[in-house]
C-alpha cells in the first residue's frame, strides 16, 4: 500500500510539526483538533515556520507554497480520517484518552488505514488490543522539533504486522527521517535515556550543584548534546515530562521516581515555553 493521505490528530507542538513535515514531503495532510483556536495557532505557526525557512534558505518558495497547499485544518474527526491511508495521533500522553480517540477514529477511517500513536512511553500493545485490527496499529515516536530532528522510533506492539512496520518505514523515509525498530518495552530506547538525564538534572538543580544555565551548558559542550536537559524539558513541557516520568516510575521502578523539584514546578503552573515560564522565563 502506498500512503498518500495522512491525518494527524492533535495540533499541539508535535501534531503541527508532524503535519508540517509530512506536507513538506508531498503528503496530503489533514490536521484535526477539537479546538478551533488551537488549529488557528497551528496554521499561523506552520506558516511562520515555512516563511522563516525560505528566508534562511532551508526550503524554496515553491516548497513553502506546497506546505500551505497540502495541509487542511479541521475540527471534524470524520472529515480528517475518512480518506486517510495513515492516521497519526499526537494528543496528551494519557492512555484512556488515546484509546478513546482511536476507537472514534476506527468508526470513520478506511479499512486499509494504518493507525499510529506518537508516544514516548505509552504501550502500543495496550492500545492496539482495543482496536479491531491490532496488526495495523503501531507507535511512531517523533522528536521535537519535528522538521529538524532526523529520527523516528518505530515501536511494534505484540500484534503489529511486518507489513505495517514496512509501510511506516517507507513513510518515514519519504519524510527524510532515519528509523530504528524497537520491540515494545516501557520507555523504548530514547525516552528511557532522556528521562534519566533530565530527571538527574532536576535533582542537581534542587541540590544546588550548579545553575540551570551551567548544567545545560555542561551537557551541550561536554557531552555534545544539541540542547541542554532544561531547554529540552521547557520545550516539551514540564507537565508532559512529569507524566512520562510517572509512567516509567510505575513500570520500571525507583530510578525513575520524578524529582520533587519537577513536581513542584508543575504544581506552580511553570510548564515551560507554552506557559511562558518553566526552568527559564520566556517572553
TrEMBL record:
Q: Name one Pfam family in it.
A: 3HCDH_N
Q: Which UniProt keyword terms apply here?
A: NAD, Oxidoreductase
Q: In which pathway does it act?
A: Lipid metabolism; butanoate metabolism
Q: Which GO terms describe its molecular function?
A: 3-hydroxybutyryl-CoA dehydrogenase activity; NAD+ binding
- Give GO terms for biological process: fatty acid beta-oxidation
The residues the record assigns to binding NAD(+) are: 10-15, 33, 93, 98, 120, 144, 274
Could you tell me which residue ranges the 3-hydroxyacyl-CoA dehydrogenase C-terminal domain spans?
187-282
Please list the residue ranges annotated as the 3-hydroxyacyl-CoA dehydrogenase NAD binding domain.
Answer: 5-184
- On whether Oxidoreductase is a keyword of this UniProt record, the answer is yes
**Sites annotated Important for catalytic activity:** 141
Name the InterPro entries for this protein: 3-OHacyl-CoA_DH (IPR022694), 3-OHacyl-CoA_DH_NAD-bd (IPR006176), 3HC_DH_C (IPR006108), 6-PGluconate_DH-like_C_sf (IPR008927), 6PGD_dom2 (IPR013328), NAD(P)-bd_dom_sf (IPR036291)
Question: What family is this?
Answer: Belongs to the 3-hydroxyacyl-CoA dehydrogenase family.
Write the protein's name. Answer: 3-hydroxyacyl-CoA dehydrogenase
The organism is Niallia endozanthoxylica
Q: What is the lineage of its organism?
A: Bacteria, Bacillati, Bacillota, Bacilli, Bacillales
Amino acid at each position: 500500500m502506498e500512503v498518500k493521505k495522512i491525518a494527524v490528530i492533535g495540533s499541539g507542538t508535535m501534531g503541527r510539526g508532524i503535519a508540517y513535515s509530512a506536507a513538506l514531503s508531498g503528503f496530503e495532510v489533514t490536521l484535526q483538533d477539537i479546538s478551533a483556536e488551537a488549529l488557528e495557532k497551528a496554521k499561523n505557526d506552520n506558516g511562520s515556520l515555512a516563511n522563516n525557512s525560505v528566508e534562511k534558505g532551508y526550503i524554496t518558495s515553491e516548497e513553502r507554497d506546497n506546505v500551505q497547499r497540502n495541509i487542511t485544518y479541521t475540527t471534524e474527526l470524520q472529515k480528517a480520517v475518512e480518506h486517510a491511508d495513515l492516521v497519526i495521533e499526537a494528543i496528551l500522553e494519557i492512555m484512556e484518552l488515546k484509546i478513546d480517540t482511536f476507537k472514534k477514529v476506527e468508526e470513520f477511517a478506511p479499512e486499509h488505514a494504518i493507525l499510529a500513536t506518537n508516544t514516548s512511553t505509552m504501550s502500543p500493545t495496550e492500545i492496539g488490543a482495543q482496536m479491531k485490527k491490532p496488526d495495523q496499529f503501531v507507535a511512531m515516536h517523533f522528536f521535537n522539533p519535528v522538521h529538524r530532528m532526523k529520527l523516528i522510533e518505530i515501536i511494534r506492539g505484540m500484534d503489529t504486522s511486518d507489513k505495517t512496520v514496512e509501510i511506516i518505514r517507507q513513510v518515514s523515509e519519504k519524510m527524510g527521517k532515519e528509523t530504528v525498530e524497537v520491540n515494545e518495552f516501557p520507555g523504548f530506547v530514547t525516552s528511557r535515556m532522556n528521562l534519566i538525564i533530565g530527571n538527574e538534572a532536576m535533582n542537581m538543580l534542587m541540590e544546588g550543584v550548579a545553575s540551570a544555565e551551567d548544567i545545560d551548558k555542561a551537557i551541550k559542550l561536554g557531552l555534545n548534546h544539541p540542547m541542554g536537559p532544561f531547554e529540552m524539558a521547557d520545550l516539551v513541557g514540564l507537565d508532559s515530562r512529569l507524566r512520562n516520568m510517572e509512567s516509567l516510575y510505575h513500570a520500571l521502578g525507583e530510578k525513575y521516581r520524578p524529582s520533587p523539584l519537577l513536581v513542584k514546578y508543575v504544581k506552580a503552573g511553570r510548564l515551560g515555553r507554552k506557559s511562558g515560564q518553566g526552568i527559564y522565563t520566556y517572553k
